[in-house]
Amino acid sequence: MPDRRVLPHEPRIPPGERDFLRLWAGDAVSQIGSQITLFALPFTAVAVLHVSGDQVGLLQALYTLPFLLMPLPAGLWLDSRPLRPVLITVNLFCAVLVLSVPLAAAAGALGLTQLYVVAVLGGAATVTSDIAKVALLPRLVPAERLASANSRFNTGLAVGATSGPGLAGWLTTLVGAPNALFGDSLSYLFCAGAMARLEHREDARPARPPRKRNLREEVTAGLRVVARYAPLRNIAVHAALFNACAQLLNVALVVYLVRERGYGGGAYGLVLVCGGLGGVLGTVAAPLLIRRLGHGRAILAVVTVSVPAFCIIPAAHGTRATVVALCSFALFTGSAGAGAGSVVSATVRHLASPPDLHARVNAAYRLVTFGSMPAGALAGGLLVDRIGAHATLWTAAVALLFALLPLVLAPVRTLRAVERQDRAAPGLPAAG
User: Fold this and answer.
1) Within a 10 A sphere around the Cβ of 73, how many other Cβ atoms?
2) DSSP label at 255?
3) 175 and which of 155, 179, 266, 376 could share a cystine (Cβ 3.0–4.6 Å)?
4) What is the pTM for the complete model shown?
């Protein structure tokens, strides 16, 4: 008989995989909490402070304003320092920030100005954290697993979008909208703890050669990669148009369902939950679509099916159950396309840029794609007050159809694969 003594064994999960799971888990829980805040802040403004449509639009715009102003300098700053300490600090800051809302409400001092401050500082922290996480991801997983890793990462985001609004609606009904933010504060603390357990260390950064730094060139390096690589450029233009229109729709939807139809937090939360379920489906299906169709045709296929579904929302009429069901289906279908598209675009960005530019390329992409969101939110508030929430929903749905145009062009339609860029120099990627 052979010796069957139990010998010490190596961990079944490699260190890099353990770190990815910690990064993914921390981000997933944080995303759930963030959805609580994204639900509770405008709901508090509308239902508790009784603000106008313009003020709801301004609240949304202030949250998205850092997505326009911060990405390029944040990307340069993050590329020159370890990412783990940044993620820990940002999450601890966010925990304190959102906790200030229920504390102020308990003291009877909550006002719209504080919601504005929480929105803009929370947006700035989100920009920094998201760029850092996306830049850290390809350092934890090999190239052949990037599509799968991005799918799992975006699935966490979609799960947050699914469970967060439902949890927020339940908490809002149970303890009130301001107190629901306790949940988000706890989620940030969990994420900070997960980041503290990462084994991957980047304390020793490669020294830059002694030369006079050209800050303008360094800041815009990521933007040049996005601008010069035609498929990525067209995907970014599509995402910018899509996000602006989505903000328009988001502002109108909360006013339309909560104020004009009087459905309350439960029905509004159910619609958002269904949107999150669609996002989960899209992110899970994205790797298979990439393998079968290639990067370009995968994103084109999903958005040409999903984007027209947004027209169902303003077209919905009938009983309360019918309207909620139709809006839920529309948001489910539209979010499925958005979820799959996010996985494709993230994978293309990771492969199309060298490691020393990951943060700056992702920052540049976010500048282009999220920079349009403040304008969309402000326009949504203005249109809601002037033509009504229902007409604004129609405007957003029709405008979303025009966001498809950059994807039907050859650079995206014919993109099959992207060769990973491993050189330090920011050369142009080659499409396969």
Assistant:
1) 13
2) I
3) 179
4) 0.68
Residue position matching structure tokens 């249109």: 383
> In angstroms, rounded to a whole number, what is the distance separating the alpha carbons of residues 415 and 352?
12
**Helix locations, 8-80, DSSP H:** 15-43, 53-69, 71-79
Helix (H), strand (E) at residue 168: helix 146-175
Yes or no: say if 399 and 329 are a contact pair by the CB < 8 Å rule.
no
Please report, as a single letter, which amino acid is at residue 321.
A
In 3D, which of 330, 276, 341, 277 has the Cα closest to residue 303? 341
Query: How many other C-beta atoms lie within 10 A of the C-beta of residue 14?
Result: 10
Tokens coding 12: 């079944």
Q: What is the pLDDT of residues 222-262, one digit of tens each?
A: 788 888 888 888 999 999 999 999 988 988 998 888 888 88
Locate the domains of the chain by residue range: 15-201+214-413
CA distance 121 to 62: 9
- With contact defined as beta carbons under 8 Å apart, do 91 and 195 qualify? yes
Distances in Å between the Cα of 121 and the Cα atoms of 113, 151, 407 are 12, 28, 33
By C-alpha distance, which of 364, 401, 371 is closest to 73? 364
Nearest to 202 by CA among 84, 78, 89, 357: 84
Fold annotation for 15-201+214-413: Growth Hormone; Chain: A; (1.20.1250)
pLDDT in tens, 34-73: 888 888 888 888 777 777 777 877 887 888 788 778 887 8
Distance (Å, whole) CA 35 – CA 41: 10
Whose CA is closest to 188, among 102, 89, 94? 94
Classify residue 432 as exposed, middle or buried by CB count within 10 Å of its CB (0-12, 13-18, 19+). Answer: exposed
Determine how many CB atoms are found less than 10 A away from the CB of residue 173: 14
Torsion on CA atoms 260, 261, 262, 268, rounded to nearest 10: -110
Residues in the chain: 432
Spatial separation of the C-alpha atoms in residues 427 and 260, rounded to whole Å: 53
Nearest to residue 259, comparing CAs of 140, 149, 392, 374? 392
